[in-house]
Design brief:
This protein is of the alpha/beta class. The chain has one domain: Rossmann fold (3-Layer(aba) Sandwich). The chain is built from six helices and four strands, in the order βαβααβαβαα. A four-stranded parallel β-sheet has the order 2-1-3-4. Helix 1 runs parallel beside helix 5.
């Protein structure tokens, strides 16, 4: 259950099938009651990639409720959720991120798309690299002092994005 003081982070990517789903699941797992994690894509795929779900399950991270969705779902008047921070994970999401109600802090974390790999062994490596990168960044995110819409918060979130 989320309280009023819960800090909501929306992770945006292109297809909402790998990177943003991994980030959502990691923040849900590690963020506790301080965070509300969401994810969406500009052009969501019909399903979460099976490699995404398998990786999360192998790490003991809950996969129930994870599904691909478009960011329009969050902008529909009947479903508006107060978003405190938007983290784009793909260049396409960064370039096309719409204006958001409440003017949340927006930051970009470059993360290589594991679905761009054509060979299975390369895809497995890219998924692991993506997971490790996001895990390190989420680990730093849960330790910062949260303040809604502040310059300090923006700088901290940008700094987290520099972690490789």
């Amino acid at each position: 259950m989320f309280t009023y003081n819960t800090f909501t982070v929306l992770f945006l990517s292109t297809g909402n099938a790998a990177r943003s789903i991994l980030a959502e699941a990691l923040l849900r797992e590690k963020g506790g009651e301080r965070f509300n994690a969401r994810s969406a894509g500009q052009r969501p795929l019909s399903d979460v990639n099976p490699h995404t779900l398998a990786l999360l399950a192998s790490e003991g991270i809950a996969i129930n409720g994870l599904h691909s969705k478009g960011w329009g779902e969050f902008l529909a008047s009947s479903h508006i959720i107060k978003i405190d921070a938007i983290v784009t994970l793909s260049e396409e999401a960064r370039a096309n991120c719409p204006a958001w109600p409440g003017d949340p802090v927006k930051v970009h974390w470059t993360v290589d798309d594991p679905l761009s790999a054509e060979k299975p062994d390369v895809m497995e490596w890219k998924f692991r690299k993506c997971f490790n990168t996001l895990e390190a960044r989420i680990g730093r995110l849960i330790k910062i002092r949260l303040a809604r819409k502040s310059e300090e918060l923006l700088l901290q979130l940008k700094d987290i994005g520099m972690v490789v």
